[in-house]
Every structure is written in structure tokens, then in C-alpha cells.
């Protein structure tokens, strides 16, 4: 069958797989049959690091207004050294009726961006312009009464904002009534280095409860007060994924003023998150390492749909009541110094692994426990070099897995014995003894990554950790990359120290 005989929609899907703009340009110039389709693909995706390049795009779009309809994905990544300081007009996002995703990075995100005071006003104008566009598209602004026109940004599904407050203000501030939380069609929202606290204007949000279609919300290196979090999480109909990545790497005094970590008010944080307890599938809570505060008890027993839980170390809180459907538990920054027999009991109690494994075993499932090691250098301290380096780690792993199995069996036997005491007159339908276990109840993985000089949020061209699975139900002769990681722009973790630790015999 000739390519020209295929439906235009199918040809468009084929051309969208061509990443090379020069190839698409050649197709548009040499084949009249494919000129229009090639042009649609050429104008569908854009990534800019310079304002001058963006200005050229606008000039090209203005030559044919139909080209505005082709634009689907736009990334304005001005956090690089290539930023050119031009005081061009900000992009009017509302001119792109089919825009699906938008990424915006402030030129002040990184110290290596050569920007000065004269550029601060340009960036502030950009922010205000974007926020005005979001306000026009939000449910705060009524649509046309006659229904003849759709609201702008009606197709926007993904929004990523790595913003700053200005030249010397790494953090920017907003409130729950910010229009980015009120975009009706948005599915995925990620914002970083933001400080959010409640305001008097938030009372106007009550009529919009459970009105947005947001499914995935990520706060990276951010501070959100519990009151603000409660109001933000009241807006989505069905939030599936929530990541609270609190300030951890950036310098910011969070212990004073109105901004405090949500974990300092655990009851308030759980009350806010519980608004989505019937919907959440993925929950990540990455708090700072503070050891002198009172241990908080994390009760997630009412989160019936939660299957994936991520925690950053467990010094500040304990998973007292795990989610009943949990299948994956990931612990970030797991201290290698905890890999000793004396720390085994406390580790088991901190994240309540026995209950997590037992719940999975009763469902004939396996709990995947990922321990991401904190630092390669610390691992080297526990056993020295050469063959001796791996012995403490291997002993910990072996004891850990064996102890888990023993405790799960003990718990299971107690449950089975309790069923034996039930009266014979009791209805048989009310007796539901656990089924015999057919699979291993625990899949333990140890992951390592090289230390890199970048920190979240990872911006354009910045390398990010590449996590390597070193242990997966046994020391691996051939480690593999974690499939959940983003390998684009990442840095290799194939370092000699880790090879020596895990592969020594």
C-alpha cells in the first residue's frame, strides 16, 4: 500500500515519530502531498533557551495564523547560559488553542545563568503575563454565555513551572487561589521552589471544590503550609498521584515565620491528604533530615487505593498503619550505617514492613521494597575495601530477608490459630482464613547512584542521578538501571566503589 493512500491521521502519527526537524523540512519542501502534514509536525513541538529564537517563531506564526493551531508542546527553558537578555514580549499562551504541555524555567534558577538586575523586570513581566493567561483559562473566569467560543488553554494537560521570585529570590510565593490550581482540563502539574500559604481570598474557592481534573501534583523543594495544602487538595475530582518534596537541598530558614514543614503538623497534613484518600494511588513524602524533633506516627490505613508509597528516611515519622493495598514501598536516602543487625528491629518497626508484607501475602502478591542508599562514601566506611567490604552488607541483607520471613510466618500462624477458635455455629461465609502463600512475600532491591553536583529541580541540560539496582532478591552479577528513573541527561552510576562493595567475593 502506498503511503499516500493511508488516512491523514495515520500519516500524521507516523510523521510525529520523526524527531529531526531538518528531515521534516526536507519533506515539506520536496513532497507537495506531505507538505501540510510535515508543517503540522514542524510546528507541534518547540524548546527555546533564547528569547531571540522565540521571537523568530512568533514572526513565522504570524505569516500564517493557522500555524497557531499546530503548536502542541512548548518549553521555555531560560535557565541556561544561553539566555540573551532581550526584552521581547512574553508569549501569549492563549493564542495556542491546542497547546497540550507548557514548561517554563526562570533565568534566575541557576547561579551559572549570567543574568543581572536589568533582566529581573523582564522575568517578572513574564510571570505576570503567564499568570494572567492561566487566570483567563481557569474556572475563576466564566466562559462565554452563548457557548460559541471555548475557553483558552482548554487542551492544556501538563504544566511545569520552575520559577523564581527574582534575581536574589530563589523561592516564589503564591496562594491556593492561584489560577494554576484551577485550570479545568489540566492533568499534571509540577511546580518547584514555591512558598504557599493560605490567604483570605481562598474562601472563594469553596464553590470550586472537586471541579478540576488534576490527576498528578508535584511540589519539588517547596514549602506548602497545611492550611494551603488542604485547600489545594480540595479542588481535584480524583487526584491519583501526590509528591510533597519539601525544602531539602536549597538554603532556606523554614523554622521561622509563617512557613513550616507540613510534617511539623502531621495531623493537619493527613487531614489535607485524606480529602483524596479514595483516589490516591501514589504518595511520596520527602521531608528533611531532622533528628531532634518528636517522632510522628503516620496512619495511612484509610487510603484504600494507595499502592505506591515513597518516604525519605524514617527519622521523623513511622508508618504506624500502612495502606491495605500497598505493593511498592520506596525509602529515599536510606542510611548505609543502618545496615547492621542492631538496627534491624528499629528499621522493621519504623516502616512497619511486617504488616506491609503480610497484607501482600494475604492477597497473593509480593511487596517490592526499594532502599535507595544514601551515599556511596558512607557505604565504604562500614566494611573497608576488597572482599571485606561486602560482608557487612551481605550479612545485613541476608538477615533482613530471613527476619522478614520469620515474622510474617509468626503473624500468619497467629491469624490461622485465631480462626481455629471460631465457634462451629458461626456462619461459614464469615470465615475467611488467609490462603496459602504461593509467592515470595518480599522483593528487596538495593539501589545506588553517584553523587552529582546538581540538585532538584533538575533543569534543562542538568544531569540527574541514575539509579542502578545492585541487589534484587540476590546480589546481581549484572546490575540494571531502575526502569522508573529518567535516564535523559543522567549521569552514569557505574562507579568502581559500588562494584567493589557488591561484587567482591
From TrEMBL:
* Pfam families noted in UniProt: F-box-like (PF12937)
Biased segments, Polar residues type: 418-431
Region described as Disordered: spans on this chain? 418-438
Domain F-box, which positions? Answer: 1-57
Judging by the UniProt lineage, the source's domain of life is Eukaryota
SUPFAM superfamilies of this UniProt entry?
Answer: F-box domain, RNI-like
Annotated CDD domains: F-box_SF (cd09917)
Q: What is this protein called?
A: F-box domain-containing protein
Amino acid at each position: 500500500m502506498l503511503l499516500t493512500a493511508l488516512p491523514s491521521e495515520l500519516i500524521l502519527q507516523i510523521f510525529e515519530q520523526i524527531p529531526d526537524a531538518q528531515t521534516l523540512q526536507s519533506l515539506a519542501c520536496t513532497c507537495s502531498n506531505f507538505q501540510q502534514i510535515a508543517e503540522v509536525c514542524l510546528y507541534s513541538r518547540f524548546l527555546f533557551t533564547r528569547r531571540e529564537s522565540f521571537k523568530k517563531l512568533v514572526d513565522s506564526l504570524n505569516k500564517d495564523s493557522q500555524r497557531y493551531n499546530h503548536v502542541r508542546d512548548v518549553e521555555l527553558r531560560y535557565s541556561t547560559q544561553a539566555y540573551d537578555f532581550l526584552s521581547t514580549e512574553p508569549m501569549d499562551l492563549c493564542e495556542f488553542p491546542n497547546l497540550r504541555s507548557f514548561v517554563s524555567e526562570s533565568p534566575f534558577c541557576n547561579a551559572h545563568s549570567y543574568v543581572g538586575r536589568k533582566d529581573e523586570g523582564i522575568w517578572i513581566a513574564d510571570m505576570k503575563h503567564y499568570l494572567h493567561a492561566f487566570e483567563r483559562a481557569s474556572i475563576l473566569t466564566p466562559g462565554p454565555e452563548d457557548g460559541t467560543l471555548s475557553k483558552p488553554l482548554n487542551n492544556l494537560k501538563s504544566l511545569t513551572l520552575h520559577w523564581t521570585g527574582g534575581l536574589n529570590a530563589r523561592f516564589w510565593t503564591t496562594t491556593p487561589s492561584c489560577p494554576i490550581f484551577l485550570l479545568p482540563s489540566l492533568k499534571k502539574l509540577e511546580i518547584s521552589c514555591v512558598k504557599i500559604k493560605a490567604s483570605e481570598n481562598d474562601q472563594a474557592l469553596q464553590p470550586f471544590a472537586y471541579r478540576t481534573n488534576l490527576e498528578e501534583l508535584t511540589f519539588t523543594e517547596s514549602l506548602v503550609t497545611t492550611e494551603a495544602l488542604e485547600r489545594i487538595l480540595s479542588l481535584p475530582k480524583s487526584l491519583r498521584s501526590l509528591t510533597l518534596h519539601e525544602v531539602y537541598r536549597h538554603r532556606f530558614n523554614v523554622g521561622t515565620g509563617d512557613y513550616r514543614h507540613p510534617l511539623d503538623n502531621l495531623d493537619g497534613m493527613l487531614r489535607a491528604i485524606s480529602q483524596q484518600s479514595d483516589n490516591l494511588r501514589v504518595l511520596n513524602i520527602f521531608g528533611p533530615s531532622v533528628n531532634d524533633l518528636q517522632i510522628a506516627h503516620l496512619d495511612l490505613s484509610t487510603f484504600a487505593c494507595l499502592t505506591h508509597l515513597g518516604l525519605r528516611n524514617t527519622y521523623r515519622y513511622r508508618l504506624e498503619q500502612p495502606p491495605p493495598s500497598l505493593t511498592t514501598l520506596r525509602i529515599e536516602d536510606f542510611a548505609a550505617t543502618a545496615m547492621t543487625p542492631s538496627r534491624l528491629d528499629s528499621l522493621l518497626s519504623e516502616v512497619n514492613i511486617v504488616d506491609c508484607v503480610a497484607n501482600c501475602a494475604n492477597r497473593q502478591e509480593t511487596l517490592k521494597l526499594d532502599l535507595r542508599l544514601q551515599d556511596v562514601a558512607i557505604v565504604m566506611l562500614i566494611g573497608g575495601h576488597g572482599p571485606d567490604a561486602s560482608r557487612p552488607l551481605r550479612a545485613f541483607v541476608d538477615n533482613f530477608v530471613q527476619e522478614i520471613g520469620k515474622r510474617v510466618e509468626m503473624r500468619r500462624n497467629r491469624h490461622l490459630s485465631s480462626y481455629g477458635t471460631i465457634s462451629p455455629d458461626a456462619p461459614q461465609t464469615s470465615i475467611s482464613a488467609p490462603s496459602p502463600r504461593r509467592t515470595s512475600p518480599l522483593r528487596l532491591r538495593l539501589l545506588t547512584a553517584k553523587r552529582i553536583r546538581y540538585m532538584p529541580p533538575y533543569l534543562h541540560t542538568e544531569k540527574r542521578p541514575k539509579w542502578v539496582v545492585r541487589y534484587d532478591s540476590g546480589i546481581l552479577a549484572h546490575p540494571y538501571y531502575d526502569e522508573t528513573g529518567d535516564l535523559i541527561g543522567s549521569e552514569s552510576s557505574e562507579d568502581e566503589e559500588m562494584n567493589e562493595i557488591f561484587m567482591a567475593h
